[in-house]
Structure formats: structure tokens, C-alpha cells
Design a protein that fits this description.
The complex is a heterodimer. By secondary structure, chain A is mainly α. Among the domains of chain A are: about 5-200, no CATH class; about 375-455, no CATH class. Chain A is built from 17 helices and no strands. In chain B, strands 2-5-8-1-9 form a 5-stranded parallel beta sheet. Chain B is globular. Helix content of chain B is about 45%, strand content about 15%. Chain B has 2 domains: about 5-220, P-loop containing nucleotide triphosphate hydrolases (Rossmann fold), CATH 3.40.50; about 225-325, Helicase, Ruva Protein, domain 3, CATH 1.10.8. The relative contact order of chain B is 0.16. Chain B starts with a helix and ends in an 11-residue tail after the last helix. Chain B is of the alpha/beta class. The chains are: A mainly alpha, B alpha/beta.
Chain lengths: ~475, ~325
């Protein structure tokens, strides 16, 4: 398997998955907010365009800030182009009216949500996603996260559409396409990491088997969707109603067997004397605003309990499935305990940090110790080395120790072996030995990293773990 | 890490080098095995040497004992060996008209239990208390064993007729299981040359005294173990408990052993901190003998060592995140 097309397929899978949920979301917003006047397909072009453009930008030898600026400038231009083509096609290009419509839509957001603002926000999100994808290390974990996140967004979009009464066109092909890309991407990523059955006994025919498996899964999905029709569901509901009626009749029959108590005459009601509420009572009267707040809190609590119950039930079902699958002969089951929770919390954390624009010490789920600046520098340099070697096609295997990885890297770059030795040695000392470097040692380390990073490691065209 | 600890680690390394070079006068080309025996010695653990006859198992144990200047006793296990032959007995002294305790061969600093699997389970079991609690109970009287205390047991994995396989409780008490393996061609020639005139074991002198060894054992416990390294050791031990080919995984005693052994190995190699390589290196000798592989795995020809190696190659080493 060659690196080029493997990585290409993985990128295509992610673009496909994200494209599907972006399409669903944009179609919903287009109908609900912009009255369906925008072309969602036209806007979606921005996403692959952003990915390709940012991939190309990475090859430029410019400062990061410059690349960042060029990237977002390109977004602004493409956004304006979409506004012009989709909303102001009949106006001349030099007319300032269509140019001013975008800032006007931002100003008027308090009164109305205009289609220009949807284009602005939609293309902004797509451009950010495309840019993020161009920097993303595409592996099995990334594919699984994308799948989980995409599925969640799709479900939310469909739920919102059904609640708002919006008809989403071609939703079934969209879901099938989403699953096709997800299955394709996850299975290839899994096979690449050498832990899949595809990399074992059936390695020779893996692509054929993969396609057959995906086809079978999709076929099964189609069959289920063909069988479970609205008519079928109505029939099932009618059957349930009939069963419930039968049970109620049975209960009524049992109740009729017992004699009914004779109704006793109630004494006439005495009128309540009109009394002014006492001062103490008035003092404890809860104002309406507080009661409204408490009511909302109560609903949120109930909603939270329902979500927790659903999560618990689904996790129990998954555990049962896992036990069943683990018992199957020849089956391999990979458990990802807490993966969804960790991904979701990580996503929330990143959103919070992005929104605040600050690096606040928010730690959801895990606590980290404060690291001394000298230690942080050494670890940062080693992280850069790992990132750099991974980008060059020689990633570290998870089970490789720093010295094992050094041995492998030194074979690839014998000319900088001394520098690699030093970086690894100092990293091991600070990371595992809690030893601090002197200023001189730190300077020497930085120099070594400079020497290594200037060394041009040729890509070998093979995506495999170095041993 | 302060300067004192750095100097201490250098002292341990020097002592270890002295011992290794002394043992190497007798045992040719088996530095790794000698190092592992030294690891067990510094952790107050016990070693099971498993290999075919004539490899030098007994010679290694004797050489280590001589190099330490400690008392050495040998127990040759046979099916008719009784627990009292190992622990000692109370006999009636007619002169003094009272019962006296005559200590068995277990009352020594280094005890070679040769061909341990030839002893009956009853006799094997009498070693359990000695190995774990470093004491022996004879006729309701508990006698502490001399310190340092190291049991070097040997067993032959090929000849199984008339042997009693060691129970899991016994195996779990051995810190390490090592093998010597056949020497290389050059090493075998060197052995013939050295043993031509006389046995070099006869001229071996002690290079470390018992008191110094006890001090080094205490210092080894001070070797720094970073929390992620500890978690790595635990992850490996835990992975053995859920592996599909393993019926009985590693016990907490095994993970504790791995932790202690890694401290000793780091000290022997002149470091005052443990690195993931130490854990990886020691995983097979520390864990493999404590595991029970499933019958299907045995039939497929998979050994416990191979399974531990596979586990080690899948557990994530604590290094920086790449993303």
C-alpha cells in the first residue's frame, strides 16, 4: 500500500463525512433562516477549497502569522464571491451595495437574520474545518472522532428538522454516504495501523474484502430501511394499541368483580374566611422571576436525568454487545472505554478556549501538574521532533521508547545522530528523571534541534512504523 | 534530584560492575543473565534459572555467592527430600537433656535449590514462607533467616519424568526467571581455555560484603520512579489479565516486583531514575513465569514469554503526545 493514495483516501473519507453533516446543517439553516434562497452545494465548495488551499500554503516558507493571514484573506474573498453570485448576481461587480450587504447583515443581526450572515458564518465554519483538516494528523483515532461527532450532528440536525417541520431533501442518500465514507475511512485507518484482521491472514485480498464488507453493511442498511417503512411502524403502533386496550379491558373486568362502595353524602362545604396573609408569609413569598428560574432549573434537571438514563441504557447495550462479540470465535473487538466522553469533553474544552480566546487552566476530566519552564522547553522540543518526523513519514510507534525511536531515527539520519542523541538524552533526563537542565545545556539542545530540523529527511513513500 | 543521590547511584554502579566482572571470571559471555541475578539480589527477590543441564546454572549461583562473601548452602532436591531437611529440626540432646534446634541448609545468605522441580510439592511448599517472609517456622517456633537472603533455584525444562511442576504460588514468589542459553562458539572456546588448568571458582574472592550489600539494597529503593512510568508498569501487568491467550494474569506482587526490579536495574546502569526501557527489558523475566497461558495458546505453540512480548509491543509508552 502506498502512502499517497492511502492518505488521500483518508482525507477524502473525512471530507465526505464532514461534507454530509455540513450539508444537512446548512440545508436546515437555509430553509429555516434564509427561506431556501441559497444554494447549499455552492457554499459547500468552500470546504474542499479551504483544505486544498491550506495544504498548498503549508509548503510556503513563510511565518505562521503570514500563512494564517493569507488563509483567512482567501476565505473573505471566497465568501464575498459567494454572496455576489448567490444573492446579487444582477448587480455590477463594482457596485458597493453587495459589498456593504455583509457588514450590514452583522449590524442588523439584532432585528433580523439575513442570508448574507448565514453565508458569512457558514463559509467561515467550513473554511476553519478545511484549514483544520489540512493540519490534522489523520489516523484511526481521528477517523473515529470524526465519525462520532458527525453522527451526533446529523442526529441533531434531523431531530431539529422534524421538530421544525422542515423537509430535508435526500436525507437517506446523505446518511448512506456518511456511513460509506465512515466505514471506508475507519477500516483503512485500522488496517494501516496493523491491528486489523485485514492486515493479517487476508492481507493479500484486503481491498476486495473491504469493499465487500462495506457493500454488505450498506445493503443491510438499505434492506432495513426498505422494511421499516412508515406503514410498518403504523402497523406496529396499532398492534401495541390493541394490546394495551386488551390489557385495560382485562383490568376493567377484574375491577368489575369487586362490589363498588356506596357513595357517602358529603357535608356542605363551609366558606373559607377571607384572611390577609401574615407579614412573615409575605416575606417568604417567592417572586415570579425566581420561580421561573427554578422551573427552568427543574426542567433542566429532568432533561439531564433523562439524558443520563439514555446514556446508561445505551452503554449497557454496548457492554452486552461487547461481551457477545468477545465470545465469538475469531472475532476481535477493540474497546474504546470513555472515548466518546473524552472526545466530547475535549471538544467542549476547545470550544470554550476558542470562544474566550484565552488559554485558561480549564481541566475537564483530568488534572495536570504544573511543569517548570525548563522542562516544558525540553518537552516542547521533543514534541516538535516527533511531529516533524511523523510529517516526514516516520512516526513513532506507541510502544517505542525514546531510545528505541532514537535508534530508528539515527539509521535514517546518520549525519545528525549526535544531535538526535543529545535531544533524546536530555528529554529522557527531564521527563523521567525530573532533572533540570542548565542554561548552557538548554542552549545546546536548541542548537541541536535546529541542526536536526534543517536536515532534509527524504520521504520514503511508505507509511509504516519504524523499528 | 540532589547531588547525594547522584553519587549514590554511581556507587551502586561501581559495586555492580565489580560484582559482574568478578562473576564473569567464571561465567563467560552471560552479562545479561548476571545483571538480572544482580537485579534480584538488590531487590531481595529470588531467581529461578531454567535451562538445560550443563549450561552453568549451579556455577552461576556459586560464583555470585563467592563474590558476595556471604554464606552459601546448597539443597539438592530429590523426591525423598523432606521439609525438615530444608528448614531444620528440633532434636533431643541427650547430654543437655533438652530439645535443640539444628538449622537446615535454608539458614544461609545464598541458597542454591538445585533442580527444585524434583522435590515433592510438600517440600516445595516449605519454601513459601522463607521466600516471602524471610523466616522459617519449625515446631511452632519462628526463626528469622539471615540477611541478605537470596534463593537461586534451578530447574530443567526438558526432562519432566519424575518431576513436580512448581505451583503458581511458588512461581509467583520468584522475582525473575532467567535462562542462560548455550554459549557462542568463541565463548565456549574461552570456557575450555579457562577451565584447562583449574576451576576459576576456587580462586574467586569476595568483592562485596554482606553489610555493603544491605546498604545498597536500601539505596536502590530511593531510585526515582516517575508517576507515568509507574502507570506504564501497571498497564503492562493489567494487560496480562485481559489478554485472550492468558488464563491467569500477573498478580499485584508481579507489578510490585517489576517496579522494584526496574529501580534496581536503573541503579545498576548508573541512573537514579527509571526509564521505560527498564520496564520493557524486565517485563518478560519478571512476568512470564507467573502467567498461565490458555491450552489453545499452548497448542498453537505460544509461550508466556511471547505473549508478554506481544503485550509490551502494544502498551503505550509514556512519551509526549504527537498531536
Amino acid at each position: 500500500m502506498k502512502l499517497g493514495w492511502q492518505k488521500g483516501v483518508l482525507y477524502v473519507a473525512i471530507i465526505g463525512m464532514e461534507g454530509c453533516w455540513l450539508y444537512a446543517l446548512m440545508a436546515l439553516l437555509n430553509k429555516q433562516v434564509a427561506g431556501g434562497c441559497l444554494s447549499v452545494h455552492g457554499m459547500l465548495i468552500v470546504y474542499p477549497l479551504a483544505f486544498i488551499f491550506n495544504m498548498l500554503l503549508q509548503h510556503l516558507r513563510c511565518p505562521k502569522a503570514c500563512i494564517w493571514g493569507v488563509s483567512w484573506l482567501a476565505w473573505a474573498l471566497s465568501m464575498l464571491l459567494i454572496v455576489k453570485v448567490q444573492l446579487f448576481g444582477d448587480l455590477p461587480l463594482l457596485d458597493s451595495a453587495w459589498l456593504l450587504s455583509v457588514p450590514r447583515s452583522i449590524v442588523e443581526v439584532i432585528y433580523t437574520f439575513r442570508p448574507e450572515l448565514l453565508i458569512l458564518l457558514g463559509t467561515g465554519v467550513m473554511w476553519w474545518l478545511g484549514r483544520r483538516l489540512s493540519y490534522l494528523k489523520v489516523d484511526f483515532g481521528a477517523l473515529v472522532s470524526e465519525f462520532q461527532f458527525g453522527l451526533l450532528i446529523l442526529l441533531i440536525a434531523f431531530f431539529a428538522a422534524s421538530q421544525l417541520g422542515v423537509e430535508l431533501a435526500s436525507s437517506v442518500p446523505m446518511v448512506l454516504t456518511f456511513f460509506l465514507f465512515a466505514l471506508l475511512g475507519i477500516s483503512i485507518a485500522h488496517a494501516l495501523e496493523g491491528t486489523s484482521w485485514l492486515s493479517g491472514l487476508y492481507q493479500g485480498h484486503w481491498s476486495g474484502l473491504l469493499l465487500i464488507t462495506i457493500s454488505l453493511v450498506l445493503l443491510l442498511g438499505l434492506l432495513i430501511s426498505a422494511v421499516v417503512t412508515p406503514g410498518f411502524l403504523q402497523l406496529a403502533v396499532a398492534a401495541l394499541k390493541w394490546l394495551l386496550g386488551l390489557i385495560l379491558k382485562l383490568i376493567a373486568l377484574i375491577a368489575s368483580l369487586f362490589p363498588e362502595p356506596e357513595p357517602a353524602e358529603l357535608p356542605p362545604a363551609t366558606p373559607m374566611p377571607e384572611m390577609e396573609p401574615s407579614e412573615v408569609f409575605k416575606m417568604w413569598t417567592v417572586p415570579e422571576s425566581v420561580r421561573s428560574g427554578l422551573r427552568i432549573g427543574f426542567y433542566v434537571l429532568w432533561l439531564g436525568l433523562i439524558v443520563v438514563a439514555l446514556w446508561r441504557i445505551s452503554s449497557d447495550i454496548f457492554s452486552w454487545l461487547r461481551r457477545k462479540l468477545a465470545g465469538m470465535a475469531g472475532a476481535e473487538f477493540e474497546s474504546l472505554p470513555g472515548a466518546f466522553r473524552a472526545d466530547f469533553l475535549g471538544w467542549l474544552k476547545r470550544i470554550c478556549l476558542k470562544l474566550l480566546g484565552l488559554r485558561l487552566p480549564i481541566h475537564l476530566g483530568a488534572r495536570t501538574r504544573a511543569i517548570l519552564p525548563e522542562v516544558a522547553s525540553v518537552r516542547q522540543i521533543y514534541r516538535q521532533l516527533l511531529h516533524w518526523a511523523t510529517a516526514a513519514g516516520w512516526p513513532r510507534h506507541i510502544s517505542q521508547t525514546p531510545y528505541e525511536y532514537l535508534h530508528a531515527l539515527a539509521q535514517l539520519m546518520p549525519e545528525v545522530q549526535g544531535d538526535l542523541d543529545l535531544i533524546t538524552e536530555q528529554y529522557v533526563r527531564t521527563r523521567y528523571g525530573a532533572l533540570l537542565l542548565t542554561k548552557g545545556e538548554l542552549h545546546q539542545l536548541r542548537q541541536s534541534w535546529r541542526n536536526v530540523s534543517q536536515n532534509k529527511l527524504k520521504k520514503r513513500g511508505k507509511y509504516k512504523w519504524i523499528k | 534530584m540532589d547531588k547525594v543521590v547522584k553519587e549514590v547511584s554511581q556507587e551502586i554502579k561501581e559495586a555492580a560492575d565489580r560484582l559482574t566482572s568478578n562473576v564473569s571470571k567464571v561465567i563467560v559471555g552471560k552479562k545479561e543473565t548476571v545483571e538480572l541475578v544482580l537485579v534480584a539480589l538488590l531487590c531481595e527477590g529470588h531467581v529461578l534459572i531454567e535451562d538445560v543441564p550443563g549450561i552453568g546454572k549451579t556455577m552461576l549461583a556459586k560464583a555470585v555467592a563467592r563474590s558476595l562473601g556471604c554464606s552459601f548452602k546448597r539443597i539438592q532436591c530429590t523426591p525423598d527430600l523432606l521439609p525438615s531437611d530444608v528448614t531444620g529440626i528440633h532434636y533431643f540432646n541427650q547430654k543437655a537433656s533438652e530439645f535443640e534446634f539444628r538449622p537446615g541448609p535454608i539458614m544461609a545468605n545464598i541458597v542454591l535449590v538445585d533442580e527444585i522441580n524434583r522435590a515433592t510439592p510438600r517440600t516445595q511448599s516449605c519454601l513459601l514462607e522463607c521466600m516471602q517472609e524471610q523466616q522459617v517456622t519449625v515446631d511452632l517456633e519462628t526463626v528469622p533467616l539471615p540477611r541478605p537472603f537470596l534463593i537461586v533455584a534451578t530447574q530443567n525444562p526438558v526432562e519432566l519424568e519424575g518431576t513436580f511442576p512448581l505451583p503458581e504460588a511458588q512461581l509467583d514468589r520468584f522475582l525473575l526467571r532467567v535462562g542462560l542459553g548455550y554459549p557462542t562458539e568463541d565463548d565456549e572456546g574461552e570456557i575450555l581455555s579457562r577451565f584447562q588448568q583449574e576451576n576459576p571458582l576456587d580462586n574467586l574472592t569476595s568483592v562485596i560484603e554482606a553489610e555493603e550489600l544491605l546498604e545498597i539494597q536500601k539505596l536502590c529503593r530511593q531510585v526515582y520512579v516517575e508517576s507515568s512510568i509507574r502507570s506504564y508498569a501497571v498497564a503492562i501487568a493489567r494487560a496480562t489479565r485481559s489478554h485472550k491467550d492468558i488464563r491467569l494474569g500477573a498478580s499485584p506482587r508481579a507489578s510490585l516486583g517489576l517496579h522494584l526490579a526496574s529501580q534496581a536495574l536503573a541503579a545498576i546502569r548508573g541512573r537514579n531514575y527509571v526509564i521505560p526501557d527498564d520496564i520493557k527489558y524486565l517485563a518478560v523475566p519478571t512476568l512470564a513465569h507467573r502467567l498461565i497461558a490458555k491450552t489453545e495458546a499452548h497448542l498453537r505453540g505460544r509461550s508466556a514469554g511471547e505473549i508478554v512480548g506481544e503485550i509490551v509491543s502494544t502498551v503505550s509508552v509514556p512519551v509526549e503526545e504527537q498531536r
